[in-house]
């Protein structure tokens, strides 16, 4: 397969709902895919809990088999899950978890770090090496999207807790992801449900949340996820995951050198009337490295249109190759650790 095609698949992070390795999974990794998310249903995501049926029937062996077959086809890969502290926790009974994010506030830094290390060791036993966690948003107002997923409204506490968890996770060789840059103090409508919602916080309000992200960068976090909607004070025209201004802020003043991951590019709050492929290309042009989207036929469609965009000169071949190589490099690091 042409290298441009392989690069197009390498920058995609499709979310597969189950741990079964399907025909679609095989096709993705065979085509050049490097990273996949073992996701959950919308109902599980909203409940912040995996279903009783999933917990009863899903096995650690399924996860291991998935990772093994992916590696057999693609070499070093990133197998991601949501593993939030007390929030969305995809590995359910296979790893330690708190009942609610606020429970972490009773723990010392060393206890939080140990919790992160234990979670990472449990994930490795499932073949998982990439956490889309922790949530670093500093919620100070209404935010149904991040309900029961955040620690505190105190910037010092959030930065401290997130950093300790990251150090624990990455001490075991796993990749942690701080999300969702640049912060979402109040989001009145869920981005899953609205294509017009924005973050209206001022730069002064955002400053405290940005300090939380600085703390995670100082802690060595390997990946940061951008948010799904526009932040008016930075870029009122583009959601953070398609915003060159947001990426420039993260790379420039905040000096982040790691992998930039988009939030779901197929959410209404991110699409805003565009196609998924249009958003994917906009994200890559903005400087995002890895694009989260639902699995299914759209994965091939998006990869095809990324290639066409390169051929048409709309997206440079170098920018696509740079992002693809950043994903491959991180996968290699994860397996070498």
N→C terminal distance: 30 Å
**Tally of contiguous helical segments:** 13
Give the percentage of residues in beta strands.
5-15%
Quaternary structure type: single chain
The CATH architecture name reads: Alpha-Beta Barrel
Question: How do the strands line up in the largest sheet?
Answer: 4-3-2-1-10
| CATH topology description | TIM Barrel
> What structural class results from the helix and strand content?
alpha/beta
User: In the residues, how many domains can be counted?
Assistant: 1
Look at the structure and give the CATH class.
Answer: Alpha Beta
Which descriptor suits the 3D outline? globular
For the biggest sheet, the summary is: 5 strands, parallel
Q: How would you name the CATH homologous superfamily?
A: Glycoside hydrolase, family 3, N-terminal domain
Q: Which stretches are poorly predicted, pLDDT < 50 over at least 5 residues?
A: none
How would you characterize this protein structure?
The chain is 45% helix and 11% strand. It has one domain: Glycoside hydrolase, family 3, N-terminal domain (TIM Barrel, Alpha-Beta Barrel). The strands form three sheets. A five-stranded parallel β-sheet has the order 4-3-2-1-10. A three-stranded parallel β-sheet has the order 5-6-9. Helix 1 crosses helix 13, helix 6 crosses helix 7 and helix 11 crosses helix 12. The chain has 337 residues and is of the alpha/beta class.
């Amino acid at each position: 397969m042409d290298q441009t095609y392989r690069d197009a698949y390498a920058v995609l992070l499709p979310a597969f709902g189950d741990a079964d390795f399907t025909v679609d999974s095989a096709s993705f990794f065979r085509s050049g895919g490097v990273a996949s998310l073992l996701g959950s249903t919308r109902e599980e995501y909203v409940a912040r809990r995996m279903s009783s049926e999933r917990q009863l029937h899903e096995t650690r062996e399924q996860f291991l088999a998935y990772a093994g077959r992916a590696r057999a086809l693609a070499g070093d890969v990133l197998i991601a899950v949501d593993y939030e502290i007390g929030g969305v926790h995809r590995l359910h009974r296979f790893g330690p978890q708190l009942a609610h994010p606020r429970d972490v506030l009773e723990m010392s830094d060393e206890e939080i770090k140990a919790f992160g290390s234990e979670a990472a060791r449990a994930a490795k036993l499932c073949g998982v090496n990439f956490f889309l966690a922790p949530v670093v948003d500093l919620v100070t107002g209404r935010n149904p999207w991040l309900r029961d997923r955040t620690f505190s409204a105190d910037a010092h506490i959030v930065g401290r807790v997130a950093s300790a968890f990251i150090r624990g996770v990455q001490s075991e060789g796993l990749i942690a992801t701080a999300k969702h840059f640049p912060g979402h103090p109040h989001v009145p409508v869920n981005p899953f449900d609205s294509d017009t919602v924005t973050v209206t916080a001022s730069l002064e309000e955002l400053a405290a949340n940005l300090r939380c992200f600085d703390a995670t960068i100082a802690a060595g976090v390997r990946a940061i996820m951008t948010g799904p909607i526009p932040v008016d004070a930075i870029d009122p025209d583009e959601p953070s995951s398609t915003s060159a201004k947001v990426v420039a802020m993260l790379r420039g003043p905040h000096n982040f050198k790691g992998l930039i991951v988009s939030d779901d590019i197929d959410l209404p709050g991110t699409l805003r009337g565009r196609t998924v492929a249009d958003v994917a290309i906009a994200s890559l042009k903005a400087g995002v490295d890895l694009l989260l989207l639902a699995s299914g036929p759209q994965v091939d469609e998006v990869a095809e249109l990324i290639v066409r965009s390169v051929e048409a000169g709309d997206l440079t071949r170098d920018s696509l190759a740079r992002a693809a190589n950043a994903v491959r490099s991180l996968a290699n690091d994860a397996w070498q650790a």
